[in-house]
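Q: I'm writing up a methods section and want to include an example of the input and output format. Could you take the sequence below and give the corresponding predicted structure tokens, formatted cleanly so I can copy it straight into the document?
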Amino acid sequence: MVLYRNGRDMSQAQMVRGAFLRAFEARRPASCGYPTSVEIAEGDLTIQGFEKLTLEMDASGEVRVRGSGTQQIRATIPSVETLLRVQEISEPLIAAALKAVTAAYGPPEQLTAANTV
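A: Here is the clean output for your methods example:
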């Protein structure tokens, strides 16, 4: 168990212990920042906040950085035509835009969203 003051008054010091302390020390304070909260029960997890991240521990005692696991995101991407219509663009301009999209990229209904970096 270690008590961190972070240069603050002792009344604002936070304790890090057990699995959280081992994870904190393994990541080094520079990557975590200092603790900003005590351990908090959140459903099936126990969490502890730090200046730069939040650590979470599951029932097995495994500690990981919150949000570092695989996440699946589902989204509905509106069609090009829908995006144009919500802008209250006139029908002739929508038709011209759809024609330009088709010429440049192929039929709008076959376009897919992609994440490019």
